[in-house]
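Everyone, study these two lines:
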Amino acid sequence: MFADGRAAIILSFENTATPQNQANAATDGKGLAQDAIRRFAFPLVDGGAGVITDDFGGLNGWVVTANAPPETEDFLKYFTNKENAAKLAEFNNILPTTLGADVGVKDPSLASAAQMAKATRHQNFLDRDLGPNVGRVVNDMSVELVSGQMSPEDALQQIEDAFSLEM
């Protein structure tokens, strides 16, 4: 819906707003013009927790088992160094997670998102942060809310119920 111009915002749009992803998601095969897309801080709510510089989105990481060869650590250091992370950002149109590698971000729709290192706090996507069981319910309830099939109160109750089963 966002790529077709039928939704005003998309939360944490870093990769969904890139030109290629816009074209893939749009019914016309083109998506929104890049000069029509901007990133902005989510408005604060009076009396709410958090500050305007808090951030929300995804994270990348690698898992290395205890049985991995010693060269694995050397490779990860090489792969994620500033120079290589900047190249990955430039050529693959991704947001780097290595500090200082944001110099490789060339896409204007990602440039402001590359400033994540300046965030005072980062909240990982809820479906990932809460684990697969609760995360699935969060995703399902998001669809139900957007489609008008469920009230916010009922969706919240479903998420709370799923969360209570994990405790």
